[in-house]
């Protein structure tokens, strides 16, 4: 040990300042890198939430479309059944003649 209490020799003030700046720079880089990871994770979380909302909206739109198609199919089926229950006013009959088929 030397007289000033340092082991391995004395460091110049400039060397110690550079060492402190180097350590501070490493700390700042680690903090910035950690902050970058937090921001990136936040962006991914927001993008996932937006995508989930869009999928939910698409599912709702498809469900509404299917329900409307079902209602229109039921309405047209009921209107067809209304027409089917009415007696037909014109009945066509086909018979074969010497010249071909005739519809009366």
Could you estimate the helical fraction of the residues in percent?
Answer: over 70%
* Rg estimate, integer Å: 43 Å
Which regions contain 5 or more consecutive residues with pLDDT less than 50? none
When the domains are counted, the total is 1
Give the tally of β-strands. 2
Tell me, rounded to a whole number, the average pLDDT.
83
Across the major sheet, the strand order is 1-2
**From N to C, what is the helix and strand string?**
HEE
Mind describing the biggest β-sheet? 2 strands, antiparallel
Distance between the termini: 128 Å
Helix-strand makeup class: mainly alpha
- Oligomeric state of shown chains: single chain
Shape: rod-shaped
Put simply, the count of helices is 1
Strand content: 5-15%
Structural features:
two-stranded antiparallel sheet; 8% strand; rod-shaped; 104 residues; mainly alpha; single chain; 70% helix
Write the layout of secondary structure elements.
Layout: H1 13-85, E1 94-97, E2 100-103
Antiparallel strand pairs: 1-2
Polypeptide structure, described:
The protein has one domain. It is mainly alpha-helical and 104 residues long. It has one helix and two strands; from the N terminus they run H-E-E. It has one helix at 13-85, and strands spanning 94-97, 100-103. The N and C termini lie far apart (128 Å). Helices cover 70% and strands 8% of the residues. A two-stranded antiparallel sheet has the order 1-2.
């Amino acid at each position: 040990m030397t007289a000033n209490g340092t082991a391995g020799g004395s460091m110049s003030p400039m060397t110690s300042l550079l060492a402190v700046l180097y350590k501070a720079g490493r700390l700042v880089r680690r903090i910035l890198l950690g902050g970058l990871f937090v921001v990136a994770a936040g962006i991914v979380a927001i993008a996932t939430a937006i995508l989930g909302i869009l999928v939910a909206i698409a599912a709702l739109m498809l469900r509404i479309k299917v329900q409307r198609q079902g209602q229109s199919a039921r309405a047209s089926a009921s209107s067809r059944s209304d027409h089917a229950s009415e007696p037909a006013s014109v009945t066509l009959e086909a018979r074969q003649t010497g010249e071909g088929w005739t519809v009366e």
